[in-house]
Amino acid sequence: MKREDLEEWLDTKWLGRNLQMMEETDSTNQRAKTAAATGEQEGLVIVAEQQTSGRGRRGRGWISPPGENIYMTMLLRPAFDPGRAPMLTLLAACAAARAAMEPGHESPRIKWPNDLVIGGKKIVGILTEMGMKKSRPDYVIIGVGINCNQTTFSGGLEQKATSLKKEYGHDVCREKVIARFLNEFEELYEGFVQYGSLAFVKQAYEKLLVNRGERVRVLEPGREWTGRALGITDTGELIVEAEDGEIREVGSGEVSVRGVYGYV
């Protein structure tokens, strides 16, 4: 990737203006944590051509072949209550969906709360982590992995994962996608800071939500149940109508949600 190409597309005020581009690292999230610990300011973005120890949600590995995809992490220094940090994952998903869209092709859809899919196959993963100082957030880092130009997937992932190149039929400019994502996320983040919830973006998020109106399987500790996803709350919980008609709110930190008949 070329820094000058990325910066040409970048239209942010503060996000990504401190940009670190690396050929290889263990994990961009880990590098951002280290930077946070040394006092780095909000807005740092770390981009790597390859990760050797990338991670996804719930500690799953994130396969990171070199020179094909996007592996990046943003550093934020929020001043709000730590209970609001999970909502940033939904903002990142919304920004990623907008950044990866291409006219004339099927658009990426959000699988609540943190994945994007096209045709039922995963194309984006997001991992949000928070560091605390006493009772307040010291930092929040948001790692984003986007399958861009990868065309082969091993280890049984062929049926579960895809890339923008496979779906759109041509190479994708990774610098442009990164810049578009950062442009979108900065605007959403500033709206979130202003309004204090997801109410201002709820309708737009729900239009992208692949689960909406579909039957889902909710995997809670000790039990499993099914229902129909209706949308999200102003604070990002998934609203599900259970089989008995009860309306329940599902938090992303507590459960895993799957489609009844497949990944989504």
Automatic annotation (TrEMBL):
The keyword Ligase applies. It comes from the Bacteria. Pfam families: BPL_C (PF02237), BPL_LplA_LipB (PF03099). One of its GO terms (biological process) is protein lipoylation. One of its GO terms (molecular function) is ATP binding. It is an enzyme of class 6 (ligase). Keywords: ATP-binding, Biotin, Ligase, Nucleotide-binding. GO terms for cellular component: cytoplasm. Residues 1-193 form the BPL/LPL catalytic domain. Its EC number is 6.3.4.15. This is biotin--[biotin carboxyl-carrier protein] ligase. It comes from Sellimonas intestinalis.
